[in-house]
Amino acid sequence: MDGDKRRTRGVQQGPRSTEVVERVLRATVSELGRVGFADFSMEAVAREAGVNRTTVYRRWPTRSALLGAVVQPLMDRYDAAPDTGSTQHDLELLMRQIRSSSDTPEGRALTAATRAASEELHELVAAIVLRASTPFRTVLQRAADAGLLDQEDVDPATQLAFFGIVMWEQSHSGPATDSDCARLARLIVPGEQTVS
Q: Smallest Cα–Cα separation from 68: which of 32, 16, 15?
C-alpha cells in the first residue's frame, strides 16, 4: 500500500521550477490587481498559474510571504544609497525611485495590499519600510556628518522624506513630479548649496 501513496518531494529546482515561480508571481500580481488583498486567495493564484495549490503553499505558506516574493525585485533597488555629492540630489533620486517603483505592477500590488491594513501584513510592511527607508537615512546621516543637518534631525528628516513621497498620491491628484521631488529635498535639507 505504501507504494500507492502520493509523495511530495519538497521545493523543486531547475528551469521548470523557475518557470513555475514566474507564473505564480505573475498570477499573484494579476489576482491582487483584480480583487485586492482582502479577497486575494492562494487557490485563485494557483488556478491562474496552472499549478497545484500545494506548489504555491510549499514555497509561500502565507499570502504575506507570496506578496513578499512579488515585491522582492523592487526591494533590491534599495540596497544602496546614491552618493552624488549632493544630499538634495541624492534625496531626489531616492524619491523618484519610490515613485517609479510605485508605478510598476508589483508596486501597485503592494500599495493595494497595504491599503487593506491587514494584520497579516504587519511584519512584511515593517520590513519593507525599514529596507526602503534605509537609503534615505544613509543620505541624511551623511548630511548630518557634513554639518548640513543636526544629528537629532536625521530620524524626523528620514520620516519626512520617505513618507512624504510614499504618501504623496494619497493627498494629491497624481504622483509627485520631478519638481515636487526637488522641492521636498530642498525643504528637508535647506542649508545645502545647490550644485549646478
A: 32
- Per-residue pLDDT reduced to its tens digit, 122-158: 899 899 999 999 999 999 999 999 999 999 999 999 9
Q: CA-to-CA distance for 23 and 63, rounded, in angstroms?
A: 16
- d(Cα 64, Cα 128) in Å, to the nearest integer? 12
What is the pTM (predicted TM-score) of this model? 0.82
What is the Cα–Cα distance from 25 to 119, expressed in whole angstroms? Answer: 22
The C-alpha atoms of residue 31 and residue 35 are separated, in whole angstroms, by: 6
Q: Which CATH superfamily is 72-188 part of?
A: Tetracycline Repressor, domain 2 (1.10.357.10)
* Angle, CA of 24, 95 and 168, to the nearest 5°: 85
**C-alpha grid cell for residue 34?**
483584480
DSSP-H helix ranges across the chain: 15-35, 42-49, 53-59, 63-76, 87-102, 105-115, 122-145, 154-166, 168-171, 178-188
CB atoms within 10 A of CB 181: 25
Out of 3.30.450.200, 1.10.10.60, 3.60.10.10, 1.10.10.10, select the CATH number for domain 9-61: 1.10.10.60
